[in-house]
Amino acid sequence: MKACIIYNSHSGTTRAFARAIGEFLAELGVENRVGSIDSYDRDYLQEAELVLLGCWTSGLMIIAQHPDRSWQYFARSMAPVRGKRVALFTTYMLATGSMFRQMEKRLAGKIDTPVARIRSKGRDLNEEHRETLRELIS
Questions:
Q1: What does the alpha-carbon distance between residue 114 and residue 20 come to, in Å, rounded to a whole number?
Q2: C-beta neighbour count of 120 within 10 angstroms
Q3: Average pLDDT along the chain
Q4: Residues with Cβ < 8 Å from 92, sequence gap 6 or more?
Q5: CB of 125 within 8 A of CB of 19?
Q6: pLDDT tens digits, one per residue of 60-94
Q7: Domain presence at residue 117
């Protein structure tokens, strides 16, 4: 299985979390590439069976959460990846609120319904994250 992990990071937390996802998937035998919205491998995205799209949570701390403008532009310009397993992930400080709903709205017509939503307050994977990733590849 191949996985493509694409992220947008503001302070480095989402980048570190994306890399942790990639390292864990590699431990499970999943070939993967991790790239920012500015430097991901477009051909690899089309080859991958599993696509993980991530962004830091922007908003007013506990309301109006949304992906930042750069991620929104990426979502509009990304080639469709229908027929693949898609998971969304975000890092946040206080709450994710409407973040996943807003991400899905920006990706309408580009992806099938996401099979997982992963949220983290930090850079590291916890056991819940690991279990979700195991389920994604099974």
A1: 20
A2: 22
A3: 96
A4: 56, 57, 65, 99, 119, 120, 121
A5: no
A6: 767 789 999 999 999 999 999 999 999 999 999 98
A7: yes
Residue 25 in domain: yes
| Secondary element (H or E) of residue 131 | helix 127-137
* 138: in domain: no
d(CA 102, CA 4): 21
State which amino acid sits at residue 16: A
Asked if the structure places residue 103 within a domain, the reply is yes
- At 13, which helix (H) or strand (E)? helix 13-27
Are the CB atoms for 10 and 68 separated by under 8 Å? yes
Domain carrying residue 127: 2-132
User: CATH no. for residue 65?
Assistant: 3.40.50.360
User: Taking the model in full, what pTM does it have?
Assistant: 0.96
